[in-house]
Amino acid sequence: MRVVYPACFVAMAAEAWLRQRTFTPVFVAGAALFLAAKLVKYWAIATLGPRWTFRVLVPEGSSRVVTGPYRYMRHPNYAGVAGELLGMALMAQAPVTGAAATVAFGALLLARIRVEERALGSVSR
């Protein structure tokens, strides 16, 4: 995930450059979505505090986080990541790499969510 995530953005930027995309209202909409997604992502990370990590860890005796954005959804960090990818696809006006990146990284996110849900299965709500 640490390699694929930045590679998605590089690929979309490369497509935008190759197609000589310009600033349009679609770019502005993508930038707004990207910014909103970034805010959700960092809110989720800040809510987890020192519990946030790239690895799936559930410390002994811990409980599910149900504050901050976790009050509204189970995986707000990943919703933010998906929004970042979609926002960048719009900003870059990159239909090929945008779709490919969203599908490929979306599959990784779904796999990661399954792993996290299994790990959190023993944690009470």
Strand content: under 5%
The description of the largest β-sheet is: none
Q: Stretches where pLDDT falls below 50 for ≥5 residues?
A: none
Q: What is the total domain count?
A: 1
Number of helices: 4
What proportion of the residues is helical, as a percent range? 55-70%
Q: How would you sum up the global shape?
A: elongated
Task: Summarize the entry for a quick read.
The chain is an all-alpha fold and about 120 residues long. The chain has helices spanning about 5-20, 25-50, 75-90, 95-120.
Structure description:
The protein has helices at residues 4-18, 25-48, 76-92, 95-120. The protein is an all-alpha fold and 125 residues long. It has one domain (4-120). α3 runs antiparallel to α4. The model has no long low-confidence stretch (mean pLDDT 91).
Q: What attributes does this structure have?
A:
mainly alpha
Give the helices and strands, then pairings:
Layout lengths: L3 H15 L6 H24 L27 H17 L2 H26 L5
